[in-house]
Write a structure and sequence with these properties.
Layout lengths: L3 E8 L5 H9 L4 E5 H6 L6 H10 L7 H17 L9 E5 L5 H7 L3 E10 L3 H15 L7 H15 L11 E5 L4 H20 L2
Parallel strand pairs: 1-3, 1-4, 2-3, 4-5
Helix pairs in contact: 1-8, 4-5
């Protein structure tokens, strides 16, 4: 199978990558997949669900092999069920890769045409967003401030280096501050740039 044409949504916890990814993914020609949603859909009493909860409750990243395996199985189910049509749709992916090792593994599966980097300048604003999300979506991994701060530490140590893995010309930096609609307008500019690059001779 050929590689999936992919736009990566990337940023710190609370930067809005999931929110923006969902909006873009609802447009014709795109398909959004959040690795975090895939994890949270696991049954808590299953073997895979217990592995996820063990790490997420501590603010830790799930092991790479488990993450990529679960992602592969899920995306191929979406293709088989005809929910995702890779020949005509661009994959909007958030929550993976979480580190450079995952990015390297995924090179066999995805062709990254753009990376939308939502830069979070105000960490307090991001923490507030995560608390609101915990209340509205009943997300246990966002309820504890201790866990949230641990997630920021994990992001700085493990995830931010992903930016060094991809060529600078693929990275579209966007200010994640402001209202969701303001961030969406900036995100759309980055997506349009990726589409224009695809149709260039």
């Amino acid at each position: 199978m050929s590689k999936f044409r992919t736009i990566l949504m990337f940023g710190a916890p609370g930067s809005g990558k999931g929110t923006q990814g969902k909006v873009i993914g609802d447009l014709p020609g795109f398909f959004h997949l959040s690795c975090g949603d895939v994890f949270r859909a696991l049954k808590h009493d299953s073997e895979l669900g217990e592995i996820f909860l063990k790490h997420s409750r501590k603010g830790e990243l799930v092991p790479d092999e488990f993450t990529v395996q679960l992602w592969q199985e899920h995306i191929h189910r979406q293709v088989s069920a005809h929910h995702f049509h890779p020949e005509s749709e661009i994959l909007i992916l958030d929550g993976i890769p979480r580190n450079a090792h995952q990015a390297q593994i995924l090179e066999d599966h995805i062709e990254v045409i753009n990376l939308i980097y939502l830069e979070a300048m105000d960490q307090e604003q991001m923490v507030e967003r995560l608390h609101r999300r915990a209340l509205h979506e009943n997300r246990l991994d966002d309820a504890s401030e201790t866990v949230i701060l641990k997630r920021f530490e994990e992001y700085e140590r493990e995830s931010r280096p992903v930016l060094d893995f991809y060529p600078p010309e693929l990275i579209h930096r966007i200010d994640a501050g402001g209202t969701p609609i303001e961030v969406l307008a900036r995100t759309v500019e980055g997506v349009l740039a990726a589409q224009d690059a695809l149709v260039m001779p």
